Amino acid sequence: MAVILRDRVRPGVRVLLVGINPGVRSAAIGHHFAGYSNRFWKLLHESGLVSEPIGAQDDERLPEWGLGVTNLIARMTPGIDTLRPDEYVAGLRTLRRKVRRWKPAIVAFVGVSLYRAIFTAPAARARTASRRLQPRMRTAAAQSRAGLVPREHRRMPVTLGPQQNTFEGARVFVLPNPSGRNANFSYAEMLAAFRTLESAARGTWVEPFRH
What is the CATH number assigned to the segment(s) 22-201? Predict the structure, then answer.
């Protein structure tokens, strides 16, 4: 039976890490990024974001280092293919409320696909969208979760690291998905992105590259 995966955060954290939704093992044991091949916790330590080696079972300690963690969508799935478009829209609405409440300086989206799903134009307007826009949001969300973002967004590659966007007043950062199944980035590239986030968390914000 799946365990409800609680947010590990408190008001005033400097960085809020946002995953897309819990995987099978995370939901089973009640801890974030708990997949056997997931490199999230190793990257946190080696980048200096946390000062000692910790694992998924220690996720409640993240606020000790000014970090929090949550998910866009609460429902557990083995992969993202079965996530429904309406879950993306509802999850975005909830995430906005969380960020307004917790007021992190930086919102770090863990995964390029997650960033695209949120910042495609229809999804980004979810909080003010009318019924007339709902079909467009559903289409964009479905494309994003399938890795098929609209053509204009495919022409604008997402660079890891700091972004030009803001999210409810917080600066936006993109991290690679640390899953062992992610072959799009080497471990060295992942670590470089996490280290850049560590610098940003200490106050050294690197201005994003302007395409």
Answer: 3.40.470.10
